[in-house]
């Protein structure tokens, strides 16, 4: 039987609602992004570790509500009037904790969006009170928002995350690979992304099918290192 060929193609994340697996660790966040759900403050803060699905949910919400998604680092004062004309999601807000200009722009955007009756989503890894924004008025407004936290994955969610990450890379591992990985890897989204990347590179380098044997060898090598 011929080996499965691997190609070093860029991963294309699937960001539709049907691509997101609902689990106890993220159920509240999924419920809150439903366009029919009225956020009490008109704004929602979505937090969670890297790879937990913040960007995925932001794009699902944006598609269903007609919002735009903008990285916090890219936000400028000049953007504010246009962005404030509709709902908007600002990603990775803690990244501008040391950027006074970006914080000022976000503060004005926050006020204009809500004044116009639109909704604002903000995302970041830690809880809102740990964002450390130097602009006190902005920090207080962030902490006043409705907050949904994406928690660490359980076994079922971790298995689905692995499957999605492989699928994003157009890889179909042998059926016993994911159960093996779930039972032995660190319990985090970041670890899942790292494991998939390592296995993809190893399979590509050796032009081999992504099998349990390959996974065992990679995991054993990591533990020895």
What is the approximate shape?
elongated
Query: Which residue ranges are poorly predicted, with pLDDT under 50 across at least 5 consecutive positions?
Result: 1-15
Q: Strand fraction band?
A: 5-15%
Percent of residues in helices comes to 40-55%
Question: Can you count the beta strands?
Answer: 5
Order the strands across the largest sheet as they lie in space: 2-3-4-1-5
CATH superfamily of the largest domain: P-loop containing nucleotide triphosphate hydrolases
Mean of residue pLDDT values: 86
Question: How many DSSP H or I helices?
Answer: 9
Just name the CATH architecture of the largest domain. Answer: 3-Layer(aba) Sandwich
Total domain modules: 2
| Series of H and E elements | HEHEHEHEHEHHHH
Radius of gyration: 20 Å
Largest sheet: 5 strands, parallel
CATH class label of the largest domain = Alpha Beta
- Helix and strand content put the structural class at alpha/beta
User: First CA to last CA: what distance?
Assistant: 33 Å
CATH fold name of the largest domain, please? Answer: Rossmann fold
């Amino acid at each position: 039987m011929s080996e499965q060929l691997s190609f070093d193609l860029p991963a294309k994340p699937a960001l539709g609602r049907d691509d997101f697996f609902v689990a106890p660790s993220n159920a509240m966040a999924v419920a809150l992004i439903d366009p029919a759900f009225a956020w009490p403050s008109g704004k929602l803060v979505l937090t969670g570790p890297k790879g937990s699905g913040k960007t995925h949910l932001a794009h699902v919400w944006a598609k269903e509500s007609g919002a735009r998604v903008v990285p916090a680092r890219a936000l400028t004062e000049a953007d504010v009037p246009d962005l404030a004309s509709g709902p908007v999601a600002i990603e990775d807000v803690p990244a501008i904790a040391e950027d006074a200009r970006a914080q000022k722009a976000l503060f004005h955007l926050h006020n204009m969006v809500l004044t116009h009756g639109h909704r604002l989503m903000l995302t970041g890894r830690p809880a809102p009170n740990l964002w450390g924004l130097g602009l006190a008025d902005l920090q207080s407004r962030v902490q006043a928002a409705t907050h949904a936290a994406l928690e660490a994955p359980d076994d079922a969610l971790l298995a689905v995350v692995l499957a999605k990450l492989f699928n994003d890379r157009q890889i179909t591992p042998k059926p016993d690979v994911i159960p093996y990985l779930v039972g032995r890897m660190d319990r985090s989204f970041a670890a899942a992304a790292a494991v998939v990347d390592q296995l993809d590179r190893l399979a590509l380098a050796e032009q081999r099918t992504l099998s349990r044997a390959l996974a065992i060898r990679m995991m054993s090598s990591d533990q020895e290192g």
